[in-house]
Specification:
Distance between the termini: 59 Å
Strand order of the largest sheet: 1-2-3-5-7-9
Order of helices and strands: EEHEEHHEEHEEHHHEHHHHHHHHHHH
Oligomer: single chain
Number of strands: 9
Structural class: alpha/beta
Shape: globular
Length: 422
């Protein structure tokens, strides 16, 4: 049958009846899931349902790794598109825009052909989720070969089945450490946890994947799809959810919405069959992506970090950026001294008594908090300092003030706070 037209991937047909799906984004040093790559994966999944192949090896064409996750620049564009739409349309727009990757992975794992992922280098975010859709995972013994779901660090959650497949494979507690704390698994830790099936020397991962696919053990069915598989009951994991939720609320009182959204995904999804679970996950994601905090954290912890790290490689941020960050740090310290409850909102990298600050924190999220008054001077300092910088300088500044604790990431650093408190 006709092969799908691919540019972000390529298909390599093998004489032994297998096909290699090679992720190899042109012009990039690392594979990322762009919109184009997502829709190509969907086209491959549909082709696979009808193809006469014995099995699939998922592998990377890059020496740098398997896949680093989503194209966060495109994510920012998608956020702007969603929030520009009428309120009543935003959920449907977000769900329909982001669900295709989850749907493609699900279609792949149910195509009736065994799939083995050969993982050399990082498999993070969407790259990890793609590998979780394989029926067998081989990783190298290299320190560069790791699997993880770091989306929480940029204010998001894994939206391609990661909140559902990870805890199903490794257990709820360890799964939540991966999802909430950014823990990456590799080597024997990943093997013992059940996240990977085999460890081999670097350079042998493709042969090992093929060996399993050609063996009598190869099965094109996931554990959650096996005959007689029954999802756990809520009582089976409620205590673990409650424990992690208590920790997250004590840490930031819900100011960062991503950890709570991740817990909601796991709590709502695990009791369902996987097809309902991934749709529950996307429902939570479609609400989360509309939040300002997610866009702010992408700016400060990804785009800003890129700009800051580039400046560091070139000799360090320019003096105007350093001076601006110092001025904002002083203004932040003054605001915190006048209103210690700001610590419970993430200022100063501190934490206040969660019981004493609970009401103030909740109203802060609604934009009604008296904490805003304490931040007026800090917001003005942010506005003044950012006005003297170009966009690259503002990105560096936003990341610098987050690093120092002067302004939390979920508020968007200096420019985000200045915009919020006009």
């Amino acid at each position: 049958m006709t092969l799908p037209d691919l540019t972000q991937f390529r298909l390599e047909m093998q004489d032994n009846g297998l096909v290699h799906l090679v992720f190899d984004c042109p012009g990039k040093s690392m594979n990322v899931f762009s919109n184009k790559a997502i829709h190509e994966l969907g086209a491959f999944a549909e082709w696979l349902h009808k193809a006469d192949v014995r099995g699939v090896v998922l592998r990377s064409g890059k020496p740098t790794g398997f896949c680093a996750g989503a194209d966060l620049t495109e994510l920012g564009v998608a956020y702007d598109m969603i929030v520009a739409a009428p309120q009543a349309d935003r959920f449907d727009i977000a769900f329909n825009h982001f669900f295709p990757l989850s749907h493609a992975i699900r279609r792949m794992e149910t195509a009736g052909k065994p799939i083995a992922a050969a993982i050399a280098g990082v498999a993070l975010g969407g790259g990890c989720e793609l590998s979780l859709g394989a029926h067998y995972r081989v990783a190298t013994d290299s320190k560069r070969a790791m699997l993880g779901l770091p989306e929480c660090a940029v204010g998001l959650l894994p939206g391609a089945g990661g909140t559902q497949r990870m805890p199903r494979l490794v257990g709820v507690d360890l799964g939540l450490e991966v999802l909430l704390l950014g823990r990456n698994l590799q080597g024997t830790d990943a093997l013992d946890a059940g996240l990977i099936n085999e460890i081999v020397a670097e350079g042998e991962e493709v042969a090992a994947a093929e060996r399993w696919l050609l063996s009598p053990d190869a099965r094109a069915v996931q554990p959650w799809d096996r005959e007689g598989a029954v999802p756990p009951t809520h009582a089976d994991y409620a205590e673990a959810i409650a424990r992690h939720r208590t920790r997250e609320l004590a840490r930031m009182l819900g100011h960062e919405p991503a950890p709570i959204a991740i817990l909601d995904c796991v709590e709502l999804g695990l009791m369902q069959p996987i097809d309902g679970a991934i749709r529950a996950e996307m429902s939570v994601f479609a609400h989360l992506i509309q939040r300002r905090e997610a866009r702010n954290m992408i700016r400060t912890m990804f785009l800003g970090k890129q700009a800051y790290d580039k400046a560091a490689r070139d000799g360090g941020p320019a003096q105007p950026v350093i001076a601006a960050a110092d001025a904002i740090a002083q203004a932040s310290a003054a605001a915190l001294a006048s209103c210690p409850d700001l610590a419970s909102a993430g200022f100063g990298n501190g934490s206040a008594d969660p019981v004493q600050s609970r009401v103030a924190a909740r109203t802060w999220l609604e934009g009604q908090s008296v904490l805003v008054q304490a931040l007026t001077g800090l917001a003005e300092a942010c506005r003044t300092q950012a006005a003297a910088l170009d966009e690259a300088g503002c990105l560096q500044l936003d990341h610098a003030v987050v690093r120092s604790g002067a302004v939390p990431a979920y508020l968007g650093g200096a420019t985000g706070l200045a915009d919020l408190i006009g």
